[in-house]
């Protein structure tokens, strides 16, 4: 999780993620959208790939990048569940309510059957 949040801490990397979210792009096309050197963009892409947020595929002389949506979604979901304490107690309360209702139903059924 730490690697992902480090990767997301950079506005440049967040922009790169936005660019490759809906279409894959080669490194040159990505670099052309920034006022930075290609080696700098390459470092950002490597960090995003190391964090598991993008995947790359070499085709001929070009490397294409695409977002790995499941990584970002599952990390953010896990983070929210970790920091948002209301979710856990509500789930436990809901489970307890279901258990209590089941016990009451069994008591009613056994009272009905025994009568």
TrEMBL record:
Question: Taxonomically, which superkingdom?
Answer: Bacteria
User: Which CDD domains did the record assign?
Assistant: HTH_ARSR (cd00090)
What residue spans carry the region label Disordered? 95-115
- Keyword Membrane appears in the UniProt entry: no
Give the keywords, sorted.
DNA-binding, Transcription, Transcription regulation
Q: Which Pfam family is an annotated match for this chain, by its short name?
A: HTH_5
Which interval of the chain is the signal sequence? none
InterPro entries referenced in this protein's UniProt entry, alphabetically: ArsR-like_HTH, HTH_ArsR_DNA-bd_dom, HTH_MetalResp_TranReg, WH-like_DNA-bd_sf, WH_DNA-bd_sf
Keyword Heme assigned to the entry: answer is no
User: What GO terms are given for molecular function?
Assistant: DNA binding; DNA-binding transcription factor activity
Which part of the chain is the HTH arsR-type domain? 1-87
Fetch the NCBIfam families from UniProt: HTH_metalloreg (NF033788)
> What protein name is recorded for this chain?
Metalloregulator ArsR/SmtB family transcription factor
From what organism does this protein derive?
A: Agrobacterium larrymoorei
């Amino acid at each position: 999780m730490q690697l992902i949040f480090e990767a997301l801490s950079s506005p440049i990397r967040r922009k790169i993620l936005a660019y490759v979210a809906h279409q894959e792009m080669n490194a040159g096309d990505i670099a052309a959208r920034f006022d930075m050197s290609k080696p700098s963009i390459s470092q950002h892409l490597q960090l995003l790939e190391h964090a598991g947020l993008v995947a790359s595929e070499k085709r001929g002389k070009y490397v294409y990048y695409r977002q790995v949506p499941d990584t970002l979604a599952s990390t953010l979901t896990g983070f929210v569940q970790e920091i948002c304490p209301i979710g856990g107690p509500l789930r436990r309360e809901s489970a307890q309510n279901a258990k209590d209702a089941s016990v009451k139903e069994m008591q009613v059924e056994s009272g009905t059957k025994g009568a």
